[in-house]
């Protein structure tokens, strides 16, 4: 049985995501590692798959991508008791290859309850696609 937007799960997951954003910006591998399950798996917006070690290396310690800020919003949380799933928007600002990039992506994240706290187990991020023309102005040839 699921409960959409369960207050307990939603609050806990928001805290984990805020702590994750903070760890990324501060480039704290230890703090980030404490939030990720050992079996963690993640697919980024370009389709690359990461495990826990490669996610921490790529997004926290390598310096290839340096997060300047990250903010999560528009949460929908479904609590399944021992695990929860959330869909959200993530606003990222990061430096990569000498350029600063700002992007908003849609993410789907899975968390599991472990000893009274939530661990991030899996996630997938995808670019948001916005059609610049309203439906009534599109040419339907």
Concise summary:
It contains 3 helices and 7 strands; from the N terminus they run E-H-H-E-E-H-E-E-E-E.
Could you describe the 3D structure shown?
- There is one protein chain.
- Strands 1-4-5-6-7-2-3 form a 7-stranded mixed beta sheet, with helices on both faces.
- Helices cover 25% and strands 49% of the residues.
- It starts with a strand and ends in a 14-residue tail after the last strand.
- The radius of gyration is 16 Å and the shape is globular.
- It has helices at 7-26, 29-33, 52-61, and strands spanning 3-4, 36-43, 49-51, 65-79, 83-96, 99-114, 117-127.
- The protein has a single domain (3-126), classed as Nuclear Transport Factor 2, Chain: A (Roll), CATH 3.10.450.
- Strand 4 (65-79) and strand 5 form a beta hairpin.
- The protein has 141 residues and is α+β, with helices and mostly antiparallel strands.
- Residues 1-5 and 131-141 have low confidence and may be disordered.
């Amino acid at each position: 049985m699921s409960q959409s937007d369960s207050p307990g799960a939603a609050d806990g997951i928001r805290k984990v995501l805020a702590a994750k954003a903070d760890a990324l910006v501060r480039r704290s591998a230890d703090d980030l590692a404490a939030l990720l399950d050992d079996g963690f798996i993640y697919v980024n917006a370009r389709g690359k798959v990461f495990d826990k070690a490669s996610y921490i290396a790529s997004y926290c310690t390598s310096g290839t991508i340096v997060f300047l800020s990250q903010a999560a919003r528009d949460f929908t949380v479904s609590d399944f008791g021992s695990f929860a799933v959330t869909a959200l928007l993530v606003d990222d600002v990061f430096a990569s290859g000498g350029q600063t990039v700002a992007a908003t992506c849609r993410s789907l994240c899975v968390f599991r309850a472990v000893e009274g706290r939530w661990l991030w187990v899996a996630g997938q991020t995808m670019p948001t696609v916005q059609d610049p023309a309203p439906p009534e102005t599109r040419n339907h040839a």
